[in-house]
Amino acid sequence: MPQIIFIDESGDLGWSFQKPYGHGGSSRYLTIGYIVLPEALRHIPERLVRDVYTRFQFNVGREKKATELKDAQKAFICQELKRLTTQHRDISIGAITVNKQNVQAHIRLDGNKLYNYMIKLSVLDKIVHRPKATFYRDERSIKVASGNSCIDYLQTVIWFEANSETEVIDRPTKSHTDLNIILVDWITHMVWSRYEYNRLTHFDLLTPILNNRRLFF
Length: 217
Hints:
Blueprint: E1 3-11, E2 29-38, H1 43-55, H2 71-87, E3 92-99, H3 105-108, H4 111-127, E4 132-137, H5 150-161, E5 167-170, H6 179-196, H7 201-206, E6 210-215
Parallel strand pairs: 1-4, 3-6, 4-5
Antiparallel strand pairs: 1-2, 2-3
Helix pairs in contact: 1-2, 1-6, 4-5
């Protein structure tokens, strides 16, 4: 069965650590979050987002970013995600976080390769046994400056290293019109905040259902 993957990130790929993040410095951590699910179930996470918008009377014509959510709203989202993944075992949520301060100097020369590698570590095992995997990413996401796109990199790894025939397709999308991307933004920010700001509450709520991975810790 073809799989679809929705991806978003929190933090940045800057390397300026002399000043605090948000005050002239880069984030100390970068988190990439994802939802992997069969195409036939894409409406399930979308329904969760609609329910959140209705419950908290969010403006349906405007994207609600994770940074704007209140603690009680985040707790409700975690609760609903737990219910969703319990009812639909084919839906997987996860995140990978890199401690950028421990990344070697030669890797910092092209942080986009690090971004690609993080995505490979996150989702490769979830798609190599599928005939097709379609990636949906915010079109404003981190751009690959190396000349090799993330999708081309994944396709090469899948065909030549994993010996799989999986076809990888890229579908850049606008985050404010894609409810699944909005949901991944919420998840990713809660995971990233655990590392960047040591905010444990919502991360702890997600932990039982989250495929969490750390890199360069």
